[in-house]
Design goal:
Blueprint: H1 3-14, E1 17-21, H2 25-34, E2 39-43, H3 51-61, E3 70-73, H4 78-83, H5 86-91, E4 102-106
Parallel strand pairs: 2-3
Antiparallel strand pairs: 1-4, 2-4
Helix pairs in contact: 2-3
């Protein structure tokens, strides 16, 4: 589990959430359609650079998940950015630091 995922988990659990983590969009969708989810925190870049956006779109189109609030986040690896050609940095291309999608539900 990445530092980012660990930080997100600790923060959400401290706020009283049960955290369910998924490594990709398919796993996240299975969680979201089979469990009560109060909020979904999605990384934009999961196994592909746009998988989080595809997951968000799929969740909005599914009657079982369309009302779940979505929080999109991502982080670009600072080491990659430092080594990337200046043109890549200006266009916003890069790799993630390992944040993955997290679906959270409260203990209420």
């Amino acid at each position: 589990m990445s530092t980012c995922s660990t930080f997100n988990r600790i923060t959400l659990e401290a706020a009283g959430f049960d955290v369910l983590a998924a490594e990709n969009g398919d796993a996240a969708m299975r969680i979201a359609t089979s469990r009560h989810v109060d909020v979904a925190v999605l990384d934009v870049m999961m196994t592909t650079p746009t998988e989080g956006f595809h997951l968000a779109r799929a969740m909005r189109q599914d009657d079982r998940t369309k009302t779940i609030p979505l929080l999109m986040l991502t982080s670009v690896n600072a080491e990659y950015e430092a080594q990337a050609p200046r043109s890549a940095s200006r266009t916003g291309t890069g790799t993630t630091s390992g944040c993955r999608s997290i679906a959270s539900s409260t203990n209420r």
